[in-house]
Amino acid sequence: MTEIFGVPIQALFGQLMLGLVNGSFYAVLSLGLAVIFGMLNIINFAHGALYMAGAMLTWVGLEYLGIGYWWMLLLGPICVGLIGIAIERLMLQWLYKLDHLYGLLLTFGLALMIEGLFRDLYGVAGQPYSIPEELSGAFNLGFMFLPKYRAWVIVASLTVCLFTWYVIEKTRLGAYLRAATENPKLTQAFGINVPLMVMLTYGFGVALAGFAGVLAAPATQISPLMGSNLIIVVFAVVVIGGMGSILGSVLTGLGLGIIEGMIKVFWPEASATVVFMIMAVVLMFRPAGLFGREK
Amino acid sequence: MMKRKLLALTLSALIVPAAGSALAQAKGKISGDVVKIAVLTDMSGVYSDLGGKGSVVAAEMAIEDFKAQAKPKFKIELVSADHQNKADIGSNKVREWYDTQGVDMVTDALNSAVALAVAKVTTEKNKIMINAGAASTRLTNEDCAPGNVVHYVYDTYALANGPGKAVTKQGKDTWFFLTADYAFGASLEKDTTDAVKANGGKVVGSVRHPLNASDFSSFLLQAQASKAKVVGLANAGGDTINSIKAANEFGLTKNQTIVGLLTTIIDIHALGLPTTQGMMFTEGYYWNLNPETREWSRKFFSRHKKMPSMLHAGTYSAVTTYLKAVQATGTDDTATVMKQMRATPINDIFAKGGKIREDGRMVHDMYLVEVKKPAESKEPWDYYHVKQVIPGDQAFQPMALSRCPAVKK
User: Fold this and answer.
1) Tens digit of each residue's pLDDT (9 = 90 or more) over A85-124
2) CA–CA distance, A211 with A221 (Å, rounded to integer)
């Protein structure tokens, strides 16, 4: 069997595949952050907590209301999106004129409160959620045993990423959005309801986090702490990709997932740090990120 | 006349307090007439289900039961704090308790890093810590303080020894470790490796994962590729839970045995029996052992809405043991109470014939358990078959191997 640095090449393919799965989560989460930052200039620290809320709602839906996975895949993001809209209307909208820091502090506080709420209700050990019937079992890819659910995660998240990119870059709605970001006053003068667009953007951005949460529910233990474990890495992904760049965040998310997967084989102790090492290097040479534009 | 009155007043002002304190001394030497117990634990982080509020509930129950049974003349107070799994926060809080709040004894104190820091402060201030939560054997070895610290519930040696021996003897003799990359994980891996080797097994490899890793599939794939018969999880809390979950998803459980080295009933409850059936590990306590444990645990359940972990039952027992010693000696003086606790066998809902050894280790029976199949479970929280009761002298590190400078001969 061919080996690379003592690791059989087939095992390496397996790890690449897993890296891609993790990268998909990074991509959906960092996409939401990028959309929100690009349009609203808000650094949304509540993103991790809302991702967790998405997963928690999935569990609550099944446990108390008997709503299965597929419905929750639709309802979860909508609920989280509505929570987002409430946050935007009640709190965030007053902060746009101020420094970034205020939005960051507000969303960070919200994240702590949302996490605290669920922790108080359900404890930290978490809730189990089983993989839906249709997706249990695994594909034998020859070089690895890939659970069907993980394959579904890749397909579902890439579809959502592609859809988001298409809406923002190629449709009329997306054009309005981009115009509203570029010059809100002028756009408003053309009769476009800018505050409404901003509200919907925030709602959509956090709905993406909710969607990632629902996707994660069967793959990991649903715990109030699951968001805070992930969010810092996702922020690093956004910084590396370039704040506000949509395509950048998706590609970076996938790429970093794969690199992280490789590191887990060759130097597992460093797997939690490698993303930040890359971030440091990227910032030294391209302060605006790999895909970002200098302003 | 005036002068004499003044003199009398001055004299009485001097005499009365002196007489008062002499009286207090005669009554019993309890500082401030209050025995103050503190629960230091993780209230919000990864271990808060293992200890946390449950430990406070257990301590409250211990105090209530003691008051009802022993009718003590002294007052008992309970305080608690969240150490956030940070050694500096924990030791500062404990220092404040000892210096300004008159705390006599600290318990729970889970998380090895915090426990070691608190042990230092406790020794310095000459108070008592009865540790019911931390795992590191250092508390009774390199960093032992037998005059002030009791290690009450379990340690990495006891956790490693049960499954290390039993599973290897079943013929599952090649092991691969998934180890949390910090002191606790390393020590658990080392202790288990020793037990596996001593019983004729072999360790074929290990992988160190970061604490709180978000995804374990990659590490498990490496464990799968190793073809080891047993995958030992030298981690705890959420890391263990997520490892087990991913092991199921990737089909490891079909050909390999997963051994969670620090697994508790809280983890099993969180994962559910379909995922965990057949797992084997060491527990310090199980609520469904006998009528006595059932009765106490149901009482605990009615207050906490969860069955007790070994830390909760251990905290209850630790507080009870301490209060009994104070009652028997009539003082909260550290040396006297420690001597009394060491001299008295511990018999309660947690331990039978438990004994505090000269290195500070509380020696009691441990249980090698196997998780039931879903069909075998008769009621909620009915999760274990107790495969073997490991007698205390075999469960814990023998004194001959002690690395504690204070007792080494």
Assistant:
1) 999 999 998 888 888 889 999 999 999 999 999 988 888 8
2) 16
Are B245 and A220 in contact (CB < 8 Å)? yes
Question: Where are the domains positioned within chain B?
Answer: 32-154+289-364, 157-283+367-395
- What does the pLDDT look like over B302-335, one tens digit per residue? 999 999 999 999 999 999 999 999 999 999 999 9
Q: What is the DSSP string of chain A?
A: --EETTEEHHHHHHHHHHHHHHHHHHHHHHHHHHHHHHHH----TTHHHHHHHHHHHHHHHHHHH---HHHHHHHHHHHHHHHHHHHHHHTGGGSTTS-HHHHHHHHHHHHHHHHHHHHHHH-SS-B--PPPGGG-SEEE-SS-EEEHHHHHHHHHHHHHHHHHHHHHHHSHHHHHHHHHHH-HHHHHHTT--HHHHHHHHHHHHHHHHHHHHHHHTTTS-B-TTHHHHHHHHHHHHHHHH-TT-HHHHHHHHHHHHHHHHHHHHH-GGGTTTHHHHHHHHHHHH-TT-SSPPP-
Chain B residue numbers with beta carbons less than 8 Å from the beta carbon of A8 are 225
Q: Which CATH class is domain B32-154+289-364?
A: alpha beta
Q: pLDDT of B180-210, one tens digit each?
A: 988 789 889 999 999 999 999 999 999 999 8
Measure Cα distances from A225 to A58, A97, B220, B262 in Å: 16, 32, 22, 20
Question: Is the CB of residue B141 less than 8 Å from the CB of residue B403?
Answer: yes
Q: What are the phi and psi torsion angles at B99 (to 5°)?
A: -75, -45
Q: Is A42 exposed, middle or buried (0-12, 13-18, 19+ CB in 10 A)?
A: buried
Which pairs count as long-range contacts for B384-390, CB under 8 Å and 24+ apart, including other chains? B384/B265, B384/B283, B384/B286, B384/B288, B386/B286, B386/B289, B387/B166, B387/B280, B388/B162, B388/B166, B389/B365, B390/B158, B390/B161, B390/B162, B390/B282, B390/B365, B390/B366
Domain B157-283+367-395 has CATH 3.40.50.2300: yes
Residue B24 has pLDDT above 50, yes or no: no
* Cβ-Cβ contacts under 8 Å, A62 against chain B: none
CA A107 to chain B, closest CA, distance in angstroms equals 20
Q: Which two tokens stand for residue B93?
A: 């809080």
Report how far residue B350's alpha carbon sits from residue B365's, in angstroms, rounded to the nearest whole number. Answer: 9
Instruction: Tell me which CATH code domain A15-285 carries.
Output: 1.10.3470
- pLDDT tens per residue across span B38-53: 999 999 888 889 999 9
Whether the CB of A91 is below 8 Å from some CB of chain B: the reply is no
CA separation for the pair A109, A127 (Å, rounded): 25
Backbone angles phi, psi at B371, to 5 degrees: -75, 135
Spatial distance between the Cα atoms of A148 and B19, rounded to a whole number of angstroms: 82
CB-based contact, B186 to chain A, within 8 Å: no
Task: Give, to the nearest 10 degrees, the angle between helix A47-65 and helix A9-40.
Answer: 110
Could you give the CA distance from residue B316 to residue B51 in angstroms, rounded to a whole number? Answer: 12
Alpha-carbon dihedral angle through residues B98, B99, B101, B102, given to the nearest 10 degrees: 60
Q: Scanning the structure block, which residue is given the tokens 């809080």?
A: B93
Q: Which band of pLDDT confidence, cut at 50, 70 and 90, is reported for residue A295?
A: low
Residue where the block lists tokens 């890359």: A278
Distance from CA of A189 to the nearest CA of B (A): 47
Q: Give the gap in angstroms from C-alpha A158 to the nearest C-alpha of chain B.
A: 19
CB-based contact, A119 to chain B, within 8 Å: yes
